Amino acid sequence: MPPKDGQNAHKTARSLSNQDKISVIIVTYNAATTFQRCLDSIFTQAYKNIEVIVIDGNSNDGTADILRKNAADIAYWISEPDNGIYDAMNKGTKQAKGKWIYFLGADDVLLPAFSGLANELTNPQAIYYGSVRTRGVIRFGKVSPYHMAKIGVFHQAIIYPAAVFLKYNYNLKYRIFADYELNMRCFKDKDLKWIFKDHIIANFNHTGFSGTQKDAPFEQDKSRLILENFGKLIWLRFAIKQIKNRLKSKKITA
Asked: What is the dihedral of CA 168, 174, 178, 181, to 10 degrees?
């Protein structure tokens, strides 16, 4: 909605100048059925200092037409073959100009509360996270270190300081859970802290790639990654839980 008068227009411009830029990176492939809704959820945010970056994997379903249609509101986009979701996300971070970086799926939707969290970003050495809604359920709220090790935090709930991606890239060994593995490294990093803010910032579509596929290399490495990044006590708790689950499974199938 446009400002009603010159005074309000001045206030809008001044508030925008005080906002740190957030780079919202969207990775797409044949997402024409959901992509415009995703973009609109960004464009209508109350927090206005957002640059949109889209890395498309050479879609052939009309996604590129949506990109061209919205080009005036997209800071950067490219459509070319890539080596998977996290290769595309790594490409996106290299184009980002924002002080903060956020990743959104083309079939996800930002909620108005995203702007609430955006306005609370103050520490450039902190990773901020809120909650998301998926399958009609709110996930996860504030999480413990054990929860972060065992289950992780959806990337749609997290706003990263840009400094994270000057230091780290997504590990392409993990096709589904490279974001989970990166968060593990960030948890171990003593230069970073995790801060929870009570905002439900996105609708996360669980039927996407990460919600329907398995990542065998990650599952094979998970125990070791927990030990390396969370320490022996959390690793031991995780290992004991795994043993109990296997014993329970054997009893059920016996």
From this structure: -80
- Among 125, 112, 91, which Cα is nearest to 23's? 91
Which residue do the tokens 């108005």 mark? 112
> What residues form DSSP beta bridges with 126?
193
Q: Are 120 and 159 in contact (CB under 8 A)?
A: no
* CA 28 remoteness from chain centre: 14
Instruction: For 172-191, write each residue's pLDDT tens digit.
Output: 999 999 999 999 999 999 99
Q: What are phi and psi of 79, to 5 degrees?
A: -130, 110
User: If you write DSSP's letter for every residue of 158-222 in order, what string do you get?
Assistant: EEEETHHHHH----TT-TTTHHHHHHHHHHH-TT-EEEEEEEEEEE--TTSHHHH---HHHHHHH
Other CB atoms within 10 A of residue 203 CB = 19
Domains observed in the chain: 20-253 (3.90.550.10)
String of DSSP letters for 94-155: HH--SSEEEEEETT-EE-THHHHHHTT---TTEEEEEEEEETTEEE-SS--HHHHHHT---G
Confidence at residue 196, expressed as pLDDT on a 0 to 100 scale:
98
